[in-house]
């Protein structure tokens, strides 16, 4: 395994991206979109874990407009009671600022960069995202059906809105297999929204899995926060790996 940080030219500047890859041969690419906390050691470790299955994984710093990944990274221990919630006061301002007119244009730059990386084989890639990154992954599947063969979202929020470009409407244009792991203790993604989302995917004729993770809070995959749930995190890796193996054999 090897890793590096690269720079990507994006519509409004330059974005850092962490890349992890196996040492041998060529492998399919996977785009990883972080949660609202952003690109940091936890996300790098997750990218390394996925890369160990036989994929070249790239995790871009999607909040590049707000500063470098290092500048935006938490300085407090987010596993302490209240620390995660305090950090999110500022983080949610960045989340709200990353509107579709920004993130949709960034997507093409990220995918082009991933496909140009050394060691990436084939013209189609997988995608996985967490929190806001999960919402972006769902949108991406509909925006770039020519490239994205699999899209996974874990503890995503805001999948269903009243906007004409709501993720549950955009994803109807996808050709990818979709996997969503919903946290059942997530106020940003209530049961009613999950049902609407599932109906939209079914109506579009997509192959998908929409699973409720019992007892899991929003952010359950993130081991560097107080929301971490070990059972949910391990299950997510099992289901994500199976999705990638079905759609992008390593």
Quick tags:
single chain, Rossmann fold, alpha/beta, 8 strands, 8 helices, globular
What is the general shape?
globular
Which strand order do you get reading across the main beta sheet? 1-2-4-3-5-6-7-8
Identify low-pLDDT runs: none
Number of helices: 8
The CATH architecture is: 3-Layer(aba) Sandwich
The fold-level CATH name is Rossmann fold
Please state the structural category. alpha/beta
- Along the chain, the helix and strand elements come as EEEHEHHHEHEHEHEH
Domains (count): 1
Q: Indicate the mean pLDDT.
A: 96
- The N- to C-terminal Cα distance equals 15 Å
Radius of gyration: 16 Å
Largest sheet: 8 strands, mixed
CATH class: Alpha Beta
Name the beta content range. Answer: 15-25%
How many strand segments? Answer: 8
CATH superfamily: Alpha/Beta hydrolase fold, catalytic domain
Helical content band: 25-40%
Description:
- By secondary structure, this protein is an alpha/beta fold.
- The chain has one domain (2-247): Alpha/Beta hydrolase fold, catalytic domain (Rossmann fold, 3-Layer(aba) Sandwich), CATH 3.40.50.
- 38% of the residues lie in helices and 24% in strands.
- It contains 8 helices and 8 strands.
- It has an 8-stranded mixed β-sheet with strand order 1-2-4-3-5-6-7-8, sandwiched between helices.
- β1 and β2 form a beta hairpin.
Summarize this structure briefly.
This protein has 250 residues and is an alpha/beta fold. It has 8 helices and 8 strands; from the N terminus they run βββαβαααβαβαβαβα. The model has no long low-confidence stretch (mean pLDDT 96).
